[in-house]
Amino acid sequence: MKRLFRVLLALCLTTPALGFAQTSEEAEAGDVSEVDKDRLGPLRERVRPVSGHVFLKKGRFEFSPSATLSLRDAFYSKYIFGGAVTYHPMETLGVSLRVGYALNTVAGAAQKCTFGEGGEGDTRGCASPTLDELDGNAPGQIKLLGGADVQWAPIYGKLSLLAETFVHFDLYGVAGASVVQYRGPGESLGAAPKSYLTPGANLGVGARFFLNRWLTLRTELRDLIYVEKGTEASGNYLRNQLLFELGVSFFFGSES
Amino acid sequence: MMRSFRLIRVAVLGLSLAWAAPTFAQNFEGLDLSGQSKKKRATSKKKRTPRKARTDKAKPTPAEDDGADDADDASASGTSVAAPPESAAPMAPAPTPAAPPSGNDGSMGMGLDLTQEAPKPAAPTMSFDAVDVSGKTADRQRLDVAVSLFKNDEYEKASMAAYELLGDPKLAGLHTEARYVLAKALYRMGMYHSSLGEFSKILSLGPSTKFFKTSLEWLFFISRKTKNETVILDEIARHANQEFPEKYRNEFRYLLARYHFVRGRALDQVGQPEEADKSFAEVKRLALTIPRDDPFFPRAKYLEGLSFFRNGSRQKDAASKRANGEMLAAVEAMKEVVRLTRPMPGKTAEQAKLDKTLRELAFMQLARTHYGMQQNRFALFYLGKVERGNTQWLEALFESAWANYRVGQYEQALGNLITLSSPFFREEYFPEALILKAVIYYENCRYRESNIILQDFERTYLPVHDQLESLVKKNMDASEYYSVLADVQKKNKEGLEKNETDLILERILRLALTDQDLRKTNDSILELEGEMDAFANRADTFKYSELSKSLLDDLKVQRTSLIAKAGIMAKGKLETELVALKQLLANGLRIKFETTTKEKEFLEEQLKAGGRTAIVKKYKYSVAVQDDQLYWPYEGEYWRDELGTYQYTMTKGCIERDTANRAVQAAGAM
Amino acid sequence: MNRPKLLLALCLVPALASAQSQEGMGLDLTEESQAESSQDSESPAPPPVEEVTASSSLDEPVEADPQLPLTDITQEDRVKSVQRKVYLKKGRFELTPLLSVSVNDPFYSKVGASVRGAYYLADTLAISARASLMQVVPSDDVRTAKRAFNSKIFYSVPQWSAMGDVEWSPIYGKVAFLNSILHFDGYLLAGAGVVRTETSALPGRGLNPAADLGLGMRFVAQDYLAVNVALINTSFVDQPLGSSKGAIQNVMTLNAGISLFLPFKSTGRDSE
User: Fold this and answer.
1) Do B421 and C72 touch (CB under 8 A)?
2) In this structure, is residue C17 part of a structural domain?
3) Of B203, B517, B524, C66, which has the fewest Cβ atoms less than 10 A away?
4) Residue B537 lies in a domain
5) C195 lies in which domain range?
6) CA distance A229 to A136
7) Nearest beta carbon to residue C71 from set B452, B573, B614
8) Can you give the pLDDT at residue A35?
């Protein structure tokens, strides 16, 4: 479940880390620095896989407004609106700051049913609970998100859709720290719910599809891990919040 | 007094036995001296290599008289007998081989015969020797010292010790042996050219010396270590009439075939075709003597194929070539090479690598042969078999551009040329590629583009032409031509700043080095210079010894002659390239004329028609590819696995046609 | 129009070609023998005329565009790369063991293992059959729900499923990772089958019919090996134990596995 996801994500991101000794930044077409012209032999050893990239990120700022949807929610579905600002010091490395404001709705999984005369098995009159009913009582009610991440984008590729459209993209992994503001139960039993601030970590993978030299479509799947304070009865919750983000990135600065 | 002498004798005997004993256990670098029996010396004098081809190092030419052979025999036996110390009769005869010239049976050591000679029947000299036995013993001991140093891997000291012996005229009898030790020590120290010099001197003494056969074998070892086997080819050819030991016989035959091949080619270049014919006939004959399952057979077969090709090339037009027996034989020979070099398990890594190179060369040669016979599709087939990234790949791309052009597949031809002009390979020298591009555009009525390309060509290659012309006009000494190239090389190596002229010269250098012979000679010179420089890294005692001085002198002489050789090749190559470049420039001009004529005609038609008409029309094209193919448009981004797969789509072209490609039907073309 | 045969007319001695002779043997006596041409001597060229149709901007863009190598591509012409596929799939069988985990149920995850066999009718079309075993695993939120809200959760417990699908790959692509280039293709799948749930054992019930919809990606590593990742949504109707109404159950699973292709060789070529 949550643990499994964590493991899977970690695995996906660590295996690329094995090959960290990678070649230096990409360059414009015509970069022959890697070509050892005197050597003869398979091209693999003389020429880099891609050169003259259609899209370059090095030295550019990325401003990316986005919308995020939370997945696999038991109680609350969150729609987070926000954005991220990233700076790419290297072609494959970026540092970003993100913020998001969350709108909470009750998740579809939660249903409140009244039992009919038929006994327990006979449910009728099922309806979703209202937000007030759940307020503060169930974990996962996020209000604000903020964080700082590091991105690593080792994979660059292109794909063709039915040989008609060709899209260039890159895949990246992201890891960082977050700050989460959520609503949780009051200090003591019966108290009103209040907001809490807690640190967390996030881990994810994403892809950017290049539309033109300064515009890309960005999508990301992130796991937000944080601890939510619960009641004395329930104890604290370790939350694995899956978030799916879709955004548009604007790149500023010239390619160096 | 006498007792002390006896004691000394015993002591010396004991010492030498102690030295001799380990040699039996010693096995050496593949030298298989067992079972080597003295063969009858072939007395035929057939292969006296002419002076002309012997352009190599100006070493003291060995005094090779056939007449002197027998005399040598006697003197050789004389000297080697005088060598061994204990000839005094009272000594217990140590195990010995019989007569000295019978080679080194029984001693598994370094060919050095440390076993004692049987005491000779009394001769006037013997009694004289008996008196001086102590002196001789000391000398022999000096040699033994050298030998033991060698065995202990102290090659520098061994070589110096051996050299000292050579300097002493009193020890004339030991000279050959000492030189042998010196030569081997030099080899072990990695000084192959110096070692070769010493072995040459031994070989020049004639086949009667004890070390003749093993020196011949050492030639093979050296040939495997030097970058360029050609340095020893001359040496080998000099002893062509010797019987080589079984193990190396085929390698020897192959090397001899190569020698004749290179010679024939040189003769062709200087315009002596009849002499060249003889050389090539010799190549073919030698190739036939190598058995089919020998590892040298494919290479010899390749040479045979090239010889056939050369003979068949005397036919000038394609039809007669197709009918010519030698051409067809060339094709068959190359196909055989391809069959034999198929990758198979069970070959060593080195053998597999050699096979692979040879296979590629065979493919290229097959392609060229078919191309010459105007069988373009066959040529394309073979060119397609050259693997990406290998040495011949760019060349294959270029030649298939030509073949594609000939069959009217302009788009594929242009696509190949795109790879050639991609940033990775732009520095390779392919001026003709631009002319081919211009011609193709011309063929497709794209006159504007054709002109642009020609402008580009002139901008790039006119300076090269001018520089080449000025170089050739200087009419310098041949070796000075080489030094121009060497300077550029040095600048490259040291990464110095290069100005405009330097860049052009560098281009010329790359061009010159496309000539394989020049490149190999260049490699040899660099190797030689490396060897000379290595002297500075040796121990001081060695660095400043007499031996070093003498070796350096020899190397300098070798180097001078190699440079002279390289200079001749360089000059010849530069002159050829200049002519070719002039021709290309002239062709470019011709295309320009044609283009302008066409444009003029078109304008005249426009005037007649009284309106605007088009010189080109848009073509329809599709991006559909077969199921087993992937299609990617080129957008300025280079992907490594797409290099070599580019195809060009002409979107506009001649009005008479609908597509750029067309089926070209030429008589007899395939 | 009578065009002089300038082509073969160019007595281009690719002496350059012959000069760039082989390595190793260093011996090349080839001389290209292009057919000699008859050189018509042209009259001196008239002053260059403008080509009317081509736009006057034709001259500059070729040089100004930094991307395109000079004179490689003239305006409007296109360059494409037509690569032969290194590994073909047509006519081959694929065997894939997969692990799956559901991604859409916050309370009860289904983890499972499946085996998939496929046959490729064409390189982009395949028919497959998949059999999975599933296990329901409650998540932490179940405890929360029960404790905090005294809730009862009615859930469907699928046990195994057998589906038959059709897969179509409209997408192909390649990625550069470190020094390698890997090819992949993306496919859509749809199909139908049956799912057996806990309730199937009840009288009057049986196997539940189900439908599949999903998409996936296959990264080709070797001629016989690929990595397969897919997101498949299996829908079936079930009335969970304890509840009185049936509902459409959607189990969206993320599947990952390694594919084995038989026969092992398709083209026999090496990648790149």
Assistant:
1) yes
2) no
3) C66
4) yes
5) 93-262
6) 10
7) B452
8) 44
Q: CB-CB: which of C106, C152, C243 is closest to A109?
A: C106
Q: Would you state the pLDDT for residue C60?
A: 31
| A185 or B496, higher pLDDT | A185
Q: Before C48, cis peptide (omega within 30)? A: no
Summarize pLDDT for A73-120 with one digit per residue, the tens: 878 888 999 999 999 999 899 999 999 999 988 877 666 666 555 545
B457 close to B438: Cβ distance less than 8 angstroms? yes
Q: Distance between CA B450 and CA B216 in Å, rounded?
A: 60
Band of pLDDT at residue B1, cut at 50, 70 and 90? low
Angle at B568 between CA B564 and CA B571, to 5 degrees: 130
Q: Return the number of other C-beta atoms located less than 10 Å from residue B533's C-beta.
A: 9
* pTM given for the model: 0.66
Nearest in space to B305 (alpha carbons), one of B235, B361, B385, B376: B361
Question: What is residue A167's predicted lDDT score, i.e. its pLDDT?
Answer: 92
Strand order in the sheet with B646-649: B629-633, C78-84, B646-649
Residue A33 is predicted with a pLDDT of: 44
Domain boundaries, chain A: 2-19+59-252
User: Taking 60 as the threshold, does the pLDDT of residue B50 lie above it?
Assistant: no
Q: Which chains touch C (3 or more CB pairs under 8 A)?
A: A, B
Cβ atoms B382, B400 nearer than 8 A: no
**Helix, strand, coil percentages, rounded to 5, for chain C:** 10, 45, 40
> Looking at the 3D structure of chain B, how many domains does it have?
1
Per the structure, how many domains does chain C have?
Answer: 1
Given pLDDT bands bounded at 50, 70 and 90, which one contains residue A37? very low
Tokens encoding B208: 């009667």
Cα distances from A27 to residues A36, A66, A92, A193, in angstroms, run: 16, 29, 12, 54
| pLDDT tens track for C207-216 | 889 999 999 9
With CA atoms as reference, the chain A residue closest to C109 would be A1
Asked whether residue C58 is domain-assigned, the answer is no
Give the strand pairing for A112-115 and B638-639.
unpaired
Residue with tokens 């690593």: A152
Output the pLDDT for position B463. Answer: 86
The alpha carbon dihedral of A143, A146, A147, A152 has a sign of: positive
CA neighbours closer than 13 Å in the CB half-sphere of residue C31? 20
Candidates B177, B82, B178, B176; CA nearest to B130 is B82
CB nearest A74 (choices: C101, C141, C174):
C141
Tell me the CATH architecture of domain A2-19+59-252. Beta Barrel (2.40)
C180–A contact, CB cutoff 8 A:
yes
Would you state the pLDDT for residue A142?
Answer: 86
Domain annotation covers residue B67:
no
- Subunits in contact with chain A (3 or more CB pairs closer than 8 Å): B, C
On whether residue B553 sits in a domain, the answer given is yes
Which domain CATH number covers C225?
A: 2.40.160.20
Residue C126 maps to a domain: yes
Query: Of residues B161 and C41, which shows the higher confidence score?
Result: B161
The Cα–Cα gap between C130 and C114 comes to 7
Which residues in chain A have their CB less than 8 angstroms from residue C181's CB?
Answer: 49
Give the confidence band of B552 by pLDDT, cuts at 50, 70, 90: confident
Residues of C in contact with B390 (CB under 8 A): none
